Amino acid sequence: MTRTRFVDTAVEALGVVPDGATVMIGGFGPAGQPVELVAALLAQGATDLVVVSNNAGNGEDALAHLIALGRVRRIMCSFPRQADSWHFDAAYRAGRIELELVPQGNLAERIRAAGAGLGGFFTPTGYGTPLAEGKETRVIGGVPMVLETPIHADVALIKAHRADRAGNLTYRRTARNFGPVMAAAARRTVVQVAEVVPAGGIDPETVVTPGIYVDSVVRLDSATTIAGTKGAVS
Amino acid sequence: MTLTRQEMAARVARDIAPGSYVNLGIGLPTLVGNHLPAGSGITLHTENGMLGMGPAAVGDEVDPELINAGKVPVTDLPGAAYFHQADSFAMMRGGHIDVCVLGAFQVSVHGDLANWSTGAPNAIPAVGGAMDLAVGARDTWVMMTLLAKDGTPKLVEECTLPLTGLGCVSRVYSDLAVIDVGPHGARLLETFGTMASQVEDLLGLALTTPAGLPQP
């Protein structure tokens, strides 16, 4: 791995995402969404994308627009249907996007498996349900299990709270969600943070994502990072 | 009297042992949190990455980065811990959570659960953590009205809707009765404002009924 690069804009951090790339997007609901990085992807123009994300866009956000513009060929997610997922809903009903619905825990663990170099894992989740149809099964310790395979990505876009100059990351509250596992599962990990501190500015005991997984970092004064946190951000 | 939603929640809360780690599903089960007695030492898990979840956030407490699995802003209590998604579901799947309370469209007498899809042909599917939660906790309880709005029983011999998990539910708390389900079938534990035979008639099922419950 190369050392983490620090840049000034989301566009520079994103760099070139080729057509057909698999892109992981962190976040669960509003927490941990790398809003500006996905907006940069929208502006950059890559198409025929495979997106791995818990949700399939909300309202008029950048992921929803990528889907509306037909630039997402396939999405792997656990919860596409939302009150405001109209762009996904329309694309799905029109057959313009392929959906692989993945139970949330399987999504997280399949991403983790990729980062950990595993070929997959057997899990009780989903056994006997439509989402396990056609998958290899095995009874282990008396429990029927389903084989699930890793999910790799070309690029991961995530939001953390603080980075030090060695690329180590910490997160805030439930915004951590998919960030740490996605950071390890992608060939290139792009991170937006609210704060950058010198190397040593994060206690090594509290590092959540070590810098080895982080390729580029941009500091952004993201409204969603700061809102409502008076006094909570040290 | 049959139970209201809040009374159902209070009834579920009464059966959660002090000191338990508990996950409350989205919807009806969320109400259980309002009825956990102070000082019970019960810790709430939310699968988007937190133990020690507190009540819904109000006013200045609202933080878009502190939400529950239903994406509602919440608070954290002293002693709370945050972790990533893979850890959160490992904690669940690994049997470390004592009780998970879920809503349901259908539960079978054997404990099969259907709670993620109505099977409607043009519906947009979504599963979230339902399948992981159903099989992970030591005890998975369902909290639901015993009948759908159209009067159709939701406790059934075999689920007809797409399954969430097989044999994963151990108990159903409803507005009319508390019923254990599992490998040996359904067993009526308690009725509310109704007699055991009436519950059987409504469901069209024969339930094991211990002596002592109101009989005709």
TrEMBL record, chain A:
Organism: Myceligenerans pegani
Segments forming a coiled coil: none
Keywords assigned by UniProt, alphabetized: Transferase
Name of the protein: 3-oxoacid CoA-transferase subunit A
Domain of life (superkingdom): Bacteria
NCBIfam families, per database record: pcaI_scoA_fam
Entry-linked PROSITE patterns: COA_TRANSF_1 (PS01273)
Annotated family: Belongs to the 3-oxoacid CoA-transferase subunit A family.
